[in-house]
Amino acid sequence: MVYYKKRAEYYIKKYKTRDPLTIAKELGIIVEFKNLSMDSPRGMFKKILGKKFIVINLSRITSSSELKMVLAHELGHTILHCNDSAFFLHDHTLYARGRFERETNLFAADLLIDMDTLDKHSIENFSINQLASFLDIPVELLKIKFKNM
């Protein structure tokens, strides 16, 4: 089993939830919701003096499903890459920041999507948009999940 999948399953089991905000709070991560510039990212993770922060840019969030996805994605950064500075790596080395983003997207998909809630009939007979709506997640996250099953 892949590392990010194991980590998602560990936190789901430990905290008995798939809610990224609840898990972040249980881990002592400070989550702030701000109205920032439309040029700013939807979310960001920072570690300052040993404290972990997730900042969600509400100006760029258009739905509850997008909010959950961004929270889960940033939580993935705090769990999978908490000792790395993606900005430093991107700006000062040849290390690809894309790998970090891919891993955190996969973590978010595994955290938010419970495949046990979908039966074979649903998967075969409903569109991806219908399934995403049922699960209250963005379509792009469901595509990531199906692509990596």
UniProtKB/TrEMBL annotation:
Domain of life of the native organism: Bacteria
Matches recorded under Pfam families: Peptidase_M78
Domain IrrE N-terminal-like: 25-145
InterPro entries to which the protein is assigned, alphabetical: IrrE_HExxH
Stored Gene3D superfamilies: 1.10.10.2910
Protein name, entry field: IrrE N-terminal-like domain-containing protein
Annotated source species: Clostridium neonatale
